[in-house]
Every structure is written in C-alpha cells, then in structure tokens.
Design goal:
With about 260 residues, the chain is α/β, with parallel strands linked by helices. Helices cover about 40% and strands about 15% of the residues. The protein has a single domain, classed as Alpha-Beta Barrel (TIM Barrel).
C-alpha cells in the first residue's frame, strides 16, 4: 500500500531536526511521499531544502493568510520561486477569519496575488479557509482559480461548500479532523466526494487523527485518516490509498515518482 501525505509541515517544531526518523516512520506505514508546505518567506528556504535533500519530499511556496509580520512576496517573486523544479504548488494561501480580525483587505489581496501566480506558472493552489468559506469561494471564482486548479486543504466545511469547490475543479483533502467523533459534516463530505477528487493529509504537527489525537502529528499517521475515510466509504483502505496517490500526482503534475 502506498500513501501520500498531501500537506505537512515537517520543518515545524517539534518535528524539525527529526527528519530521518520521521521519514522512516512514514515509510513503515506505507507513506512514500509527502508535500511540505510553505507558510512564510522566512522559513521557505527550510522547506525547499527538505525537498532538495529527499526525493520523496515535495515543496510549495506561499504565505499563510495569518502571517502578518513577515516579508510579503509580490506576484513576480512567487512566480520565480514556483519555477524551481522542487516546487509543485502555490500556497498555502486563502483566508482565515478565525485567527485574524479587523480590516482583512490585506488578506484578500494576498490571496489574489497567490491565485495570479498559480495561473501564470500553471501550479495548483493549496487553499486554507477557516470561518471564511463564502469569501474564499467568491474570490476563487472571481479570480479564475479554476485555470490553475488546486485543493481545499484540511477541509472543515459542509457539503454545500464542498460542491462549490468541486464545481470549479478543486480537490478535497481530509486531515485527522475527519476521524473526530464530532466531525459529522466532514464525514458526510468524505462519503460524498467523488473518489477521483479526494486527498489525505496530516497538516502535521497538528491535528493528529484518532487513535493518536492529542499527540504530535507526523506523516506516518496519515494512514489512520485514510483508513477512516475508506471505512466511511465502505471500501478497502488499499483502494483508497491507490486512488488518493493517483489523485495527488494528477493534481501536482510536476511532482515526480
């Protein structure tokens, strides 16, 4: 069985400095590939270095919507980094009205710049959206994000939002949240989303799935999320793993096996 952790932060503490152990743990669980996602320009070199050092680690470039104090890349800079062969996506980017408040015009402007960079470079978008579904979907539509494609990472909305994302060609990625007992709406989305549009992720070191909830998450644990999604859909985990792996490489077309 082969799995891909489609969204992780293995450069974050307490995972940083344990790369070889983390990769070995992942391999033992059939997690052969992972996408280490950028959240700011200050730590972007670490993300890129991990991808350059390990053939099964891919990288993205982007600034998380909650980052408010670091350097702000313009479209040309994002495009320049995205042309690096190790970079397979733009993001994570999007909107977060849970952790940020006040006039968030700057957040929406950043999101639009990332979408434009993705369109210019033909690299898919990694979308973060929290308490901002309506504006997230509106901007994706208005800015023509369908031309780039992408994924709604760590999906935590209901089926109505999922259908909007699916309608513009985006995939849906499930994190450990889907294993939580209270996650009824997300479980419904996991049952209904077309198999060819599903990805699985850890978002580590956060959101460890059951049975490791509350512990430090790592790519090896994406197996538990895959098992749970497969159970929800009434299918073998091996088939879910194969589908999500193919989906990953179909979306992130410059990622090579």
């Amino acid at each position: 069985m082969q799995l891909v952790d489609s969204h992780c932060h293995i450069n974050f503490d307490p995972l940083g400095g344990r790369t070889e152990e983390i990769l070995e743990n992942a391999a033992q669980q059939g997690v052969d590939y992972m996408l280490c996602v950028s959240v700011n320009m200050e730590e972007y070199p670490e993300v890129l270095s991990l991808a350059r050092a390990h053939r099964n680690v891919f990288a993205s470039v982007g600034v998380h919507p909650n980052e408010s104090s670091g350097r702000e890349p313009d479209i040309d800079e994002l495009c320049g980094h995205a042309r690096d062969p190790e970079i397979v996506a733009i993001g994570e980017t999007g909107l977060d009205y849970f952790r940020s408040s006040g006039d968030l015009t700057w957040q929406r402007d950043r999101f639009r710049r990332h979408i434009e960079a993705a369109k210019r470079t033909s690299k898919p978008l990694i979308i973060h959206s929290r308490d901002a579904a309506a504006d997230t979907m509106r901007i994706l539509r208005d800015e023509g994000a369908a031309d780039a494609g992408g994924v709604m990472h760590c999906f935590s909305e209901d089926w109505s939002v999922a259908t909007q994302a699916l309608d513009i060609g985006f995939s849906i990625s499930f994190s450990g949240i889907v294993t939580f007992k209270s996650a009824h709406a997300i479980k419904e989305v996991a049952r209904k989303t077309p198999l060819d549009r599903i990805l699985v992720e850890t978002d580590c070191p956060y959101l460890a799935p059951v049975p490791n909830r509350g512990k430090t998450n790592e790519p090896a644990y994406v197996r538990y999320t895959a098992e749970h999604v497969a159970e929800l859909r009434g299918m073998a985990v091996e088939d879910l793993a194969q589908a999500t792996t193919e989906n990953f490489f179909s979306l992130f077309t410059t990622a090579t096996r």
